[in-house]
Amino acid sequence: MDQNAIYRDLREFIVRECLEGEGSGLDADTPLLEWGVLNSITMHMLNNHIAERFSVEVPFDKRTPQNFATLRQITTLVESLQK
Fold first, then answer.
1. pLDDT digits (tens, 9 = 90+) for 33-81
2. Contacts 24+ apart (CB under 8 A), 71-77
3. Distance between CA atoms of 11 and 14, rounded to whole angstroms?
4. pTM of the shown model
5. Residues 77, 58: contact at Cβ < 8 Å?
């Protein structure tokens, strides 16, 4: 799956599951952790989604604030795990 498709899928998931369908203003560089979009529960849900949708497990040592700070960084992480 290419980077744009990964980004779109992750954005749709976050809008649906974390933002109750309201995604206006959410872009690739929105600070998801800083703004409270992602928390421990939604991070767990997102990791499950990544495993199911992209057939990759995010290793525990990759579950860092840096890798989950923005959609751009999450997309890059997922793309790197697919290789």
1. 999 999 999 999 999 999 999 999 999 999 999 999 999 999 999 999 9
2. 71/7, 71/10, 71/11, 71/14, 71/26, 71/27, 71/28, 71/29, 71/30, 71/32, 72/7, 72/28, 72/29, 74/10, 74/32, 74/46, 75/3, 75/6, 75/7, 75/10, 75/28, 76/3
3. 5
4. 0.93
5. yes
Higher pLDDT, 45 or 1: 45
| Domains, in order of start, for the chain | 3-81 (1.10.1200.10)
Residue 4's SS3 state is: helix
